[in-house]
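Lab notes, practical 5.
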Amino acid sequence: MSLEVSMSRTTDGSGGRVGSRVPGVASLSVVPEVRLLRPCETVLEKMIEGFVECQQARALQPDTIAGRVRTVRQLQAFADAFPWEWNASVFDRWSAAVAAAVAHSTLGQKQLQLSAFLSYLVNPAYGWALVCREMFGAFPAMVLAELNSVRHSQGYVGRPSRNRPLTRPEVRAFFGQMDPEITRLCAAGHKGALTAARDLAMFTTMYGWGLRRREAARLEIHDWPAAGQAGGVRGLCGAGGAVGQSPAGAAAAPADGDLRVALGGSDRAVLRRAHPAAVLP
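Output from the prediction step:
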């Protein structure tokens, strides 16, 4: 019979469950007094399971959680060591290897993912430091610091030769090219005219309100204020699953009523009235 302990709970003197109200707490997964068949591997898996529960308690998206777990496993495989054995030197060597293969922004994202995992491990509320000290004689530490992590000191961190924001002349050229293209397709009786009109409405909306790709893809009719009401796009799902609202100024985006028609129809005149002030600063 396996000696691995799964979802065990310790109790206090009164018989109550310790940490039973905290998702991901160590006492829900491992009892230090019980011998494990493969202690290092078992404790690591329980750490990851607890970390996933903690992230789920924050209502983070599954893709966000999976990315963080994947980065943790990458560092563990690279270092051939477990989290309670990680130190600044291990982290520096891993960061240097990753930096040689990925973009600057990607390295910063991976470091933030590891920071979230280590913050969970060193938090006294979850008890992993005590478990590791009793079982292995060592405990996890926050090996990331300002001196050995990417600094986000400016808004744009992309590579100018690969991806960069459009300049205003380029924005004018982009939107200015779309309207003649719709005219040409309509004159030719091409079935792509409606698709082009839809794309123009989508790009106009994204530019006017500054939407991310995921936010634009999740827009619904009820996200728009009723005709005649002022306001912005409601109910957008932002980074990490947070729900918010993107405000829209009077001169920053097309009129709501016109945009409703533009999103559902192919009238070029409506589209023309909807976007010029928004896309031609």
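Observations recorded by the TA: Confidence is low (pLDDT under 50) at residues 1-21, 235-281. Residues 124 and 278 are 51 Å apart (CA to CA).
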